[in-house]
Design brief:
alpha+beta; elongated
Length: about 210
């Protein structure tokens, strides 16, 4: 099976992904004002997120939460729901990953059940990463589409905020953990299969030596 250090490294990657996802969900850095044309005042920068919008003017930042979630567009509500769902799945998978570590004693020395728990955690983490990737990529698509759309007025054009890039990076960390866990589970299955074969061979030799 994989070493304890490799398991801990994978768990740290997943925790990094969850922390990054939570930060992306909270901050208003999804979209930022695009300085194109001659109609924008460069001293004002507007930031937009899932829960609030912020205006930076001459070094002063003022933020305001959206008055009503139901008043938002359908895509914004979809992004909210999928992001929160992804973070909840992260939290559900975390206890499974911790219990499945080789260095824990929750299941004693039963490595096969631990490997199954870690595998289940990896599947949930991967699902959460895919769900989290949908609102991030969709928002990036809308921002880029509107930026190059000549029918969209210059003051309404936006650029990708740092939260989009952080979201992609957080998803990558979680996918890496899932890959490490998948390889670990395969190694555990092969190790157990080899152990069963060796045990069966020793038993057969013992029977032949006894003349049975």
């Amino acid at each position: 099976m994989a070493t304890t250090g490799l398991q801990v490294m994978g768990l740290l990657l997943s925790l990094t992904g969850w922390a990054g996802g939570a930060l992306v969900c909270a901050v208003p850095w999804w979209r930022v004002s695009a300085f194109v044309g001659n109609e924008l005042v460069v001293s004002e920068v507007q930031w937009e997120g899932l829960w609030m919008t912020c205006l930076s003017q001459w070094g002063k930042v003022q933020c305001k939460a959206y008055d009503s979630g139901l008043a938002l567009s359908g895509s914004a509500q979809m992004c909210r729901g999928l992001t929160v769902l992804s973070l909840v799945l992260y939290l559900l998978a975390l206890p499974l990953a911790v219990v499945g570590l080789k260095c824990t004693h929750c299941l004693g020395d039963q490595q096969r059940p631990k490997a199954r728990l870690v595998q289940a955690a990896a599947i949930i983490f991967a699902s959460a990463a895919v769900i989290f990737l949908i609102p991030i990529s969709w928002t990036a698509h809308v921002v880029i589409r509107d930026f190059y759309d000549p029918s969209v007025a210059a003051p309404l054009k936006r650029e990708l905020g740092p939260a989009i890039y952080l979201g992609w990076h957080s998803t990558d960390d979680t996918v890496r953990y899932s890959g490490v866990t998948a390889s670990e589970y395969e190694a555990a299955v092969q190790e157990e299969a080899g152990l069963c074969l060796n045990t069966g061979g020793e038993w057969n030799r013992a029977i032949e030596g006894a003349g049975w």
